Amino acid sequence: MMTPSLYIFAAAWLLYWAATTRYDTQMFQQNSYRPRRWWRWWVSTKEFASRSQLLSVSAAVVFAFTWHTAALLIYAAWAAVIAWAEFAMHYKIRLAYTMRIRRLLTTRSLLTAAAIGLTAAYAPAWTLSVAMIMTLQGWSVSVNIVNTPIERAITRWYYNDARRILRSMPRLIVIGITGSFGKTSTKHFLYRILSERYNVLMTPGNFNTTLGVVRTVREQLKPYHQVFIVEMGAKQLGDIREICDLVHPSIGIVTSVGEMHLETFGSVENVARTKFELIESLPADGLGIINIDSEAAAAHRFESKAKCQTYSIDNPAADYRAVDISYDARQTTFNVVTPSGRHEGYTTHILGSGNLLNITAALAVADRLGIDVERQRTGVVQIRQIEHRLSLRNSGGITVLDDAYNSNPAGAKMALEVLGAFRTEGRRYVVTPGFVEMGQRQYDNNRQLGRRMAQAGCDAVFVVNEVNRRAICEGLADNGYPAERTHVVASFAEASAALAAIMRTGDVVLYENDLPDSFK
């Protein structure tokens, strides 16, 4: 018979189960549905997951021996507090309720109900303990194993449908873009320039995986599209080739090779091999375009049936090179040296030499597709900076350089160069958590980031979170940066509150990178 304390327990348990399930599923999604990545995150986390595990295990042990009213009510209060804290928590990346996630949640709900129901029927004394076990973190990973055959079948059907659509458009020009950094900006710049002549579709947002491309093809690619720009991301060998096998690009751009995702790649050489899967997949009449300002890209040896061209700002040997660069408060002007001659008179409103490099790659493609220089100029001048990628905004007389989506040393170097050269009578601030997923190079790269911030003349630096705190602070100290101007904070919210108290009109703040919720 249900007593009042059991009713209270049931209500608190349902709330707590919902909270732990959402959190567990969200972290599994942020770790790309990869059990190993989820496990590495879980063993390192010190916050909600560890508290909820302690509650679940301790309650399961207690309920194995007693259903005492006091134990039930103590649990209910504790569970309600933790569940309320989880639901009130603000996440940088919210759980996306995709069809896959809905299937995962449905299966988890059914398994939880079955486990509790069978226990209640055959071993009633263990019911509460089993209920608590079902709130443990990690069930989403286990349920994913159960759902794997279904997910594979659904993925195969979607993949074949996308391939059918692409085969029905034999005249479609497919352009692949990959790189450790710069690929998203290059994609947007290329889209703007090619739109001067063609009807263009590009993969939206971060749809740079095979499934993201499949979804774009099935939901957005139409018969009237003439060009399809595909951003290609990778975290392990073979990822780029898998996308190429689906879309069959005729033009490919490698924007860079750097120390990104070294935890899964293992080495920069493996990064280069993966990025150049795009160039090696091009047909004999295709075109590969490679950034030789990226040392690792320039040094990589590869085989390709297609013709290849290079682009650069610093290397005179490049086929395409941005030259005569001039900055002022309103715009940047530059010219481009090409294999066919010198193209002059380009103007853009975006910031940073790295972005000019990305524009140069787009202009190489524009030449290939027959877009005249006048249309190229029109496209370039209409380019707008992508939000969170060294975008510039003014708020109450304070200038914000928003580079929150950049998470690599080259991008950060460019952002700090812009900050250091920024004309202002105010002070300069940096807010950053540093870089992640860099394997053995993570500590050294974050220490170098600290040195560069000191060199940029920052009036104060806010180091966010714990993951790179020691390395960044040591890098700042290496260049004699005063310790009293280094502020260690737990979150961007705390940094923003501290800045609000000291910033004045004319000040400039750079937000460099923003860790997802799976890093603390």
How would you explain this protein's 3D organization?
With 520 residues, the protein is α/β, with parallel strands linked by helices. It starts with a helix and ends in an 8-residue tail after the last strand. The strands form two sheets. The protein has a nine-stranded mixed sheet with strand order 2-3-1-4-5-6-7-8-9, with helices on both faces. The chain has a six-stranded mixed sheet with strand order 10-11-15-12-13-14. It is 50% helix and 16% strand. It is globular. It has three domains: 146 residues, no CATH class; 213 residues, UDP-N-acetylmuramoyl-L-alanine:D-glutamate ligase; 122 residues, Protein-Tyrosine Phosphatase, Chain A (Alpha-Beta Complex), CATH 3.90.190.20. The model has no long low-confidence stretch (mean pLDDT 88).
**Spatial strand sequence of the major β-sheet:** 2-3-1-4-5-6-7-8-9
CATH top level assignment of the largest domain: Alpha Beta
CATH topology name of the largest domain, in short, is UDP-N-acetylmuramoyl-L-alanine:D-glutamate ligase
Which residues form runs of ≥5 with pLDDT under 50?
A: none
Helix content: 40-55%
Mean pLDDT: 88
Distance between the termini: 45 Å
Number of domains: 3
Enumerate how many helices there are, as a single number.
Answer: 20
Structural class: alpha/beta
Q: What fraction of the residues are assigned to beta strands by DSSP?
A: 15-25%
Tertiary shape: globular
Q: What's the CATH superfamily of the largest domain, by name?
A: Mur-like, catalytic domain
How large, in whole angstroms, is the Cα Rg? 26 Å
Total strands: 15
Q: Which CATH architecture of the largest domain is right?
A: 3-Layer(aba) Sandwich
Largest sheet descriptor: 9 strands, mixed
